[in-house]
Write a structure and sequence with these properties.
- One of its GO terms (molecular function) is heme binding.
- By secondary structure, the chain is mainly beta.
- The chain is 9% helix and 29% strand.
- Strands 6, 7, 9, 10 and 11 form a 5-stranded antiparallel beta sheet that branches. A 5-stranded mixed beta sheet has the order 16-23-22-18-19, with no helix packed on it.
- Strand 4 and strand 5 form a beta hairpin.
- It is globular and about 70 Å long.
- The N terminus is likely disordered.
């Protein structure tokens, strides 16, 4: 890759400003898990035979690409109060939602993904739950959920929550951690009070730099003096009107695995900022240094790095806004159709920005068509897209989706590799077989 004199220091910012100069050595290429034993070096004839038909646009396929038909394969398991989630880890419990089960404009609670860092609390009685606001504030407060409802404006908002590691499974070389594919994201309707309103009532003092969030879950070791996770926000972000202290999800009490009875919802930033089982918000005069705030957790290198490169801890920066992204929710990957037309639907979002357009391709990115795109229901919500695509002849196809936000930043085909497998916003691809 050519050296850029004015390249920004952060790898994410660099890719946003210089997508055309990114190459395989710096950013890597999409490499999908081979869960069905498909050989990466298979020839065209073998690939077509396994897929069950010809590949009309095979000449446009990027070198080394594994068809999306082989990117799925994990079996669903049942979780109480959830529907169809795929469990990645049971200690702590982490489970994602297959894309086709995220087709609703508002994600049902039953299909909201689960991301835990510790052992969830067993006592989640909403009537006795309290939230403490302290630190650099004029009026430290301890509030019940009823106090929050009585003393502050109660609002409902559709808000996207996405794990910073969503898409980690597709990094090569592999990154440690839960191997999320696509489904560590959701957009439910949350009810609560604005975090900013509560902080204002407490009186944030001059010198405040960061919030610190604490919760009732326990460290996996079971030791009471160890926290599983305690992250925070810069004061400027915490005072934004889009962040909620939520006590309801889709008009009902929160699901136990989604933070009942009280949690933060911070749209557009990594889901780890949206502390579950919330018990305390402390205002600090420094960047918070709780568990999963230091070292390499929820951080990316401050410069582009080669796949597999070792990066010193001091060269990592905290992830803030999440990148532009889209997800095809219909059709389900590996769909077979008889006609030559197909309606495609999905969602798009971009951190704390708005998505301007979504484009679809059926010829491996050689050409693109615009999809119809809705406006967000409110700041922090995802947007829904749909379009009717046509196929010229029977065979194997892939539908690709690419979103572009209001700053002109588009999703890439190549992943900006990083050691912890964060911020994967490459195109979503689904496999479609058109029968003759």
């Amino acid at each position: 890759m050519k050296e850029e004199k004015n390249a920004p220091k952060g790898i994410y910012e660099y890719y946003e400003k210089n997508p055309e100069t990114a190459d395989d050595k710096v950013f890597g290429r999409v490499s999908y898990p081979d869960r069905r034993g498909f050989l990466k070096g298979a020839g065209l004839a073998t690939m077509a035979a396994v897929l069950g038909g010809a590949i009309p646009f095979h000449r446009n396929m990027p070198a080394g690409m594994i068809p999306a038909a082989f990117a799925e394969g994990l079996e669903d398991v049942v979780i109480e109060g959830k529907d169809g989630l795929t469990v990645l880890n049971d200690r702590p419990m982490n489970a994602e939602t297959p894309p086709h089960l995220l087709n609703d404009d508002i994600t049902p609670t039953t299909r909201h993904f689960i991301r835990n860092n510790g052992i969830p609390p067993t006592d989640v009685d909403a009537d006795s739950w309290t939230l403490t606001i302290d630190g650099l504030v004029d009026k430290p407060m301890t509030l019940t959920i009823e106090d929050l409802k009585k003393n502050f404006d109660v609002v409902e908002q559709q808000l996207v929550v996405e794990c910073g590691g969503n898409g980690r499974a597709f990094f090569e070389p592999k990154a440690k951690g839960n191997q999320w594919t696509y489904g560590a994201v959701a957009c439910s309707n949350w009810t609560g009070v604005r975090l900013a309103d509560v902080l204002k009532a407490a009186g944030v003092q001059d010198g405040a730099v960061y919030t610190a969030h604490y919760s009732a879950d326990k460290h996996l070791s079971g030791k009471a003096d160890k926290l599983p996770i305690s992250r925070g926000l810069p004061i400027a972000k915490a005072m934004g009107g889009e962040n909620l202290i939520a006590f309801e999800q889709n008009g009902e009490p929160l699901h136990p695995m989604n933070g009942a009875p009280l949690r933060l919802v911070v749209p557009g930033w990594p889901g780890s900022c949206s502390q579950k089982w919330l018990t305390r918000v402390q205002v600090r005069d420094q960047v918070h240094d709780g568990p999963k705030m230091t070292g390499k957790a929820y951080r990316v290198p401050n410069r582009p790095v080669a796949p597999g490169e070792k990066v010193a801890k001091e060269d990592f920066v905290i992830i803030e806004r999440m990148p532009v992204k889209s997800l095809i929710t219909s059709p389900q990957t590996n769909t077979e159709i008889s006609g030559n037309e197909l309606m495609v639907k999905g969602h798009a979002w971009s951190g704390d920005r708005k998505v301007d357009s979504v484009q679809l391709s059926t010829d491996f990115g050689a050409t693109w068509m615009d999809a119809d795109l809705s406006d967000p229901a409110n700041e922090g919500a995802w947007q829904t897209f749909n379009a009717k695509v046509q196929f010229p002849q029977p065979g194997y196809y892939e539908v690709w989706a690419k979103a572009t936000d209001d700053q002109g930043v588009s999703q890439p085909f190549a992943i900006a590799w990083n050691p912890k497998g964060y911020l994967n916003n490459s195109f979503h691809r689904v496999a479609v077989v058109v029968k003759g």
